[in-house]
Each structure stands twice: as structure tokens, then as C-alpha cells.
Amino acid sequence: LVAARGVRESLGFAATLTAVEVGGLVMVIVAGFLAAPSADWQAPASVAEAVPGPLAAATILAFFAFIGFEDMVNMAEETREPARTVPRAILAALALTGLLYMLVAFAAVRAVPVAVLAASEQPLALVWQAGTAFGPGVLAAIAVAAALNGVLAQIVMAARVLLGIGRRVPAFSALAAIDARFGTPVRATLLIGVALILGALLLPVATLAGITSGLLLLVFTAVNLALLRLKGRTPRPAFSVPVWVPALGAALSVGALGAAMWGVG
To answer: What is the C-alpha to C-alpha distance for residues 86 and 68, in angstroms, rounded to an integer?
Structure first.
């Protein structure tokens, strides 16, 4: 319902949930540094050399945590000066998210033994309890807010993608319908909402994350290859970047997907 009402309402609600989510991660980081250091938090060299396979397999799941930054481009028409604003927003989102997740990972392995973290379905709750005297109830509420935030963001962004498809492909023109009252693509929003609910109900979280990350890496590869092809056309397109940017992007996307498949195998 929030996604169908409008962009301003959706972004306002998402911003509130994001603040709650970031606050929860900061709480976990502080708790991790307040806890007594775990005996194995500094892994010996022999252990570090023995984990390339599992580390590669974890790459695609870790990539899932960053999904969302690329969705900003779908909201470009809703922003002022998108050519200036959107690239900066993407880079800022990646930098801040990377820093936050590195601190969370560092605090987690410092506070709780690695084997215990690996065996737990709620590793952050263990970190929280290791550094505080409080139960995991607070984190559970924050986790619900984080889940709602992720769902809302994907519904809003994916609905805009379907809206664009509906405008360009006659067979899907029904998805381009805009609600007269709210000015939003209600049909596309409802379709994405139903798809997300079915996926959440039918697939385990790890499986869903792996499928989503793999498909998105394939999309990134295709986009970068398409940009490489555009570089060879004349006249030059309005949007232009150095040739090494799409080449490196395609190589890294294929490399991440290949590393994950090698690690799983």
C-alpha cells in the first residue's frame, strides 16, 4: 500500500526504516567491541590459506547484501540534476555500506568464536548478547524493520522497471498504467509485490539470495558488454565513459559469478 501511494511516501517510510536498520547495526558494532575478545578472532596463516573455496562461495551471498545501489538509476526521473546526483549517490551508498559491513564483520569475529557464528542462524544476536546484558528482542524488531525496508525498496524500484518495459514493449503495455490519484504504476507494483511474497514463502533465504545475486551479476555483465558495444558506434552516445570502465565491470561480474560457482562446487 505504501509503495502504491507514491514515491515521496515510499521514500519517507524507507528512510525511517533505514535509520532504524543502521542504528541496529551500529548497536551490534558497539556490542562487539565491548565484548571480551574471542580466542580465535585472529586466525593463523594456515587457516587463512585453507579457506579460498568457502570464501569464494560466500562472495555471491555477500554481494546480496549490497543489492539495491543499482536501483537508484530507476529513480533518476524523480531526482533533480540526475546526471550529477545519481552517480554520487551510488558511490556514496557503496562506500558507506561497505564500511558499515566491514565494521559489523570485524566486531562479530572479535566477540564470538567463528565456529559458533557459523553454526548460528542469528549470529548478530550472539554478538549483541556477548557485549551487553540485554536479550535479542530488540534486534529481532530491528530485523523486521530491515526486512520491510528491503521489500519496500525492491517493490518501488522493480515496479519502475516494469513501467519502462510496458512503455516500450506493446505486449506489456498493461504494466504502464498509471493510477490517476497517486501517479504510480499500481499494476506493476502489485505484480512485484505478489512475486516477492511467493518467493519469500517458497524459497529458503540462502537460496533466494544466491539466485538473486547470480541473476544480477549476469545483468551487470550484459549491461557492461552493451556499453562496450555502444562505445564503438558513431555518432557517440550522449552518455560516455572510458572504455576500461565497462570492460572492468564485465570482467569483475563474470569473475565474481565464476568464483562463487567454483566455491560451491
So the answer is: 13
What domain count does the chain have? 1
CA atoms within 13 Å, Cβ hemisphere of 64: 17
Task: With respect to residue 122, please indicate whether it lies within any of the assigned structural domains.
Answer: yes
38 Cβ contact list (under 8 Å, min separation 6):
109, 110, 111, 112, 113, 114
Q: Phi-psi bin for 37: left (phi > 0), alpha (psi -120 to 50), beta? A: beta
Q: pLDDT tens digit string along 76-126?
A: 766 777 778 888 888 888 888 889 888 998 888 888 888 888 787 788 888
Q: What is the pTM of this model?
A: 0.69
End-to-end CA gap in the chain = 42
Closest CA to 22 of 123, 89, 99: 99
* Residue 222 maps to a domain: no
Question: What is the CB neighbour count within 10 angstroms for residue 22?
Answer: 15
Cα 212-218-219 angle, rounded to 5 deg: 85
Domain of residue 48 covers: 1-134
> Residue 111 domain-assigned?
yes
Tell me if 112 is assigned to some domain: yes
